[in-house]
Amino acid sequence: MKIGRNDPCWCGSGKKYKACHAAFDEKLEAYKAKRIPVPSHKLIKTPEQLEGIRKAGELNTAVLDMIAEKIKAGMSTEEINRLAHDYIVAHGGIPACLGYQGFPKSICTSVNDVICHGIPDENEILQDGDIINVDVTTILNGYYADASRMFLIGEVSEEAQKLVAVTKESVDLALKEVKPWGRLGNIGAVISEHIHKNGYTVLRDIGGHGVGNDFHEDPYVCHVAKRDTGMLLVPGMVFTIEPMVNEGEEDFYQDEENGWTIYTEDGSLSAQWEYTVAVTEDGFEILTH
Length: 289
Ligand code: MF3
Ligand code: CO
Ligand code: CO
Fold this sequence. Notes:
By secondary structure, this protein is α+β, with helices and mostly antiparallel strands. The chain is built from five helices and 15 strands. The strands form five sheets. Strands 1, 2, 4 and 5 form a four-stranded antiparallel β-sheet that branches. A three-stranded antiparallel β-sheet has the order 3-12-11, with no helix packed on it. A three-stranded antiparallel β-sheet has the order 6-10-13, covered by helices on one side.
């Protein structure tokens, strides 16, 4: 169904289509003709949706800030889960992980050789020297924001510190590629280049995702990619960047018992950072980190 030039724009601005996204859609058509994959309108957030995701993001960031203050050796990962859960609920939010495809807890806690989807556990006590990723996704008024950080527990080896630092650097470097009329593949290109240069590997099969109106939306954000490939980036797209970086080989396996937790095959350490970002008119906005 074609939208009339005097109809309200599909973007939710309230303006007439001809005065809003008509030229934009023509531009998209031109890219499409050059066989460049372009986002569907569904992936472009309205100003109202963006504001909702921004608010969810503020709460999500506050959860991670709170955890940063409290996390320490001797604590169980279940205690971290409880802190996050209670904080989210006290501020009117819903922890997105709880019950998501049967996930039993409110956040993911991934210690040392756990790559992702670690399940908080009363009997898992943080030890001096551990590295842990805490991944929090908050729903507020129906909008989703998703971020994770690494925390160093006590005295951590220099090797582990470097892995954690290089992983964060890769995300910060990739932010420069988040801009309108850029390409999604440039994000993966920058990340994989930085990771490989430092002698690490980055998972190809588990990556970032569109987010905001739902937990996991299109596009898939692969952290291993070539320059000038992948979907065109346009203002209003919202997605995560969340590379999982292994000290050793990229290979992983899933916990057979719980069906969730992903470990490095070789037992080497793994680190991850995750931001939710929006593409803006002139670059990017970090919605939660
Ligand atoms: N927060 C994770 C992500 O970054 C997803 C966790 S799903 C869960 O996409 F069920 F394991 F919580
Ligand atoms: Co995510
Ligand atoms: Co996450």
